[in-house]
Structure formats: C-alpha cells, structure tokens
Amino acid sequence: MVLQRNGSIPVWGWAAANEKVTVKFHTQTKTVTTNKNGKWQILLDAEIAGGPYDLIITGKMLLH
Question: Is residue 47 part of a domain?
Fold first, then answer.
C-alpha cells in the first residue's frame, strides 16, 4: 500500500468488543481498546518518505 507522507496516518477496523488491538508501523507501536461495537481507530504519527515498512495489526485470535 502507499501511505501519505508528512501527515497523520489513520488506521481503523473492527474486532470483538473491548478487545485490545496493537498497530506497529516502522518505529511506532500504538494500542487501543475497541468500543462496545468492536470498532477501533488509531492515528499513527506522520512519516517521511521511505520504506518499505511492515504494518502489523494484532489482537486476540478466536478459534472456531
């Protein structure tokens, strides 16, 4: 993916309600707890041009 440089980077998604989600990107690691509907959003700090970098999003895994 290509991300806008020199501006905040919004990352969002859905998981289980009240689940902790961690986002790692380049040198940043941020954690958020989902709301009661399972929605979450994190704003990563601005980055300069570079890369490639990995974007890793983790939460708990549900086995079915």
Answer: yes
The C-alpha angle with vertex 23 and arms to 19 and 29, in degrees rounded to 5, equals 115
- The domain in which residue 45 lies consists of 9-58
40 assigned to some structural domain: yes
- Nearest partner of 40 among 63, 17, 6, 62, judged by Cα: 17
> Would you say residue 4 lies in a domain?
no
The model's pTM is 0.85
pLDDT in tens, 42-55: 999 999 888 899 99
